[in-house]
């Protein structure tokens, strides 16, 4: 599915429309460049990265926004478990080209990702991010108090969204990765972006 949004009147506008679609192999290099631009070189040190490294994103939940041939936004969701036996998704990173950040592309990516997660039967999504931004999509620190990440996280930025009412009730324990492991050849091809242990 694609989503079109007009960028007429914006400067600099990379094209007349934004298309949100599935990430493809040709998007890997520009995606990594966009993430470097948005988060800097220390992005691999973040606690959330411990849940992503060496893993593939959840099925149908790696999305990009493009303007013509140019990649201008990205979001991915990852399979995790909350405590020993509660499946969920970890959202992130979400990034948008800084030259058109006010065009609503992040919102488009978020809404499409959340709707797809719901369609795929997922029950809850968690993330580490700015509550002032993510609350518009339904994220909140409520029900996250007894969960912890595999590293330091500001509690006020540890947010959850129930796709099914009650999905986070009583959630307790360590958030752990459960997604498919990335094939070693693919990890080597992506180089520094994926820190696959030998």
Annotate the secondary structure layout.
Elements: E1 3-6, E2 17-22, H1 28-39, H2 49-52, E3 62-67, E4 70-82, E5 87-91, E6 95-96, H3 105-119, E7 124-128, H4 131-134, E8 147-148, E9 158-162, E10 173-177, H5 184-190
Parallel strand pairs: 5-7, 8-10
Antiparallel strand pairs: 1-2, 2-3, 3-4, 4-5, 4-6, 4-10, 7-9
Describe what is shown at a glance.
It contains five helices and ten strands.
| Radius of gyration, whole Å | 16 Å
Query: What's the shape?
Result: globular
Strand percentage: 25-35%
| N-C termini distance | 37 Å
CATH superfamily, called what? Gcn5-related N-acetyltransferase (GNAT)
Secondary-structure class: alpha+beta
Helix tally equals: 5
The CATH architecture comes to 3-Layer(aba) Sandwich
- The average pLDDT score comes to 87
Residues in helices, as a percent range: 10-25%
Can you give keywords for this protein?
5 helices, Aminopeptidase, 10 strands, ten-stranded mixed β-sheet
Report on the architecture of this protein.
The protein has five helices and ten strands. The protein is of the alpha+beta class and 198 residues long. Strands 1, 2, 3, 4, 5, 6, 7, 8, 9 and 10 form a ten-stranded mixed beta sheet that branches. Strand 4 and strand 5 (87-91) form a beta hairpin. It has helices spanning 28-39, 49-52, 105-119, 131-134, 184-190; strands at 3-6, 17-22, 62-67, 70-82, 87-91, 95-96, 124-128, 147-148, 158-162, 173-177. It starts with a strand and ends in an 8-residue tail after the last helix. It has one domain: Aminopeptidase.
């Amino acid at each position: 599915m694609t989503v079109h949004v007009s960028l007429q009147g914006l400067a600099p506008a990379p094209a007349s429309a934004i298309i949100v679609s599935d990430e493809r192999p040709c998007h890997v290099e520009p995606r990594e460049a966009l993430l470097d631009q948005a988060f800097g070189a220390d992005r691999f040190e973040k606690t959330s990265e411990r849940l992503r490294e060496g893993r593939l994103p959840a099925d149908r939940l790696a999305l990009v926004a493009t303007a013509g041939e140019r990649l201008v936004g990205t979001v991915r969701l990852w399979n995790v478990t909350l405590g020993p036996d509660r499946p969920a998704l970890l959202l992130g990173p979400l990034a948008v080209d800084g030259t058109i950040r006010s065009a609503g592309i992040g919102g488009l990516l978020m809404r499409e990702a959340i709707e797809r997660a719901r369609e795929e039967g997922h029950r809850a999504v968690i993330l580490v991010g700015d509550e002032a931004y993510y609350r518009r999509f339904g994220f909140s620190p409520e029900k996250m108090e007894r969960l912890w990440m595999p590293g330091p996280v500001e509690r006020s930025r540890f947010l959850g969204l129930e796709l099914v009412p009650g999905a986070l009730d009583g959630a307790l324990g360590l958030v752990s990765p459960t997604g498919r492991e990335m094939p070693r050849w693919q990890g080597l091809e992506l180089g520094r972006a994926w820190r696959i242990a030998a």
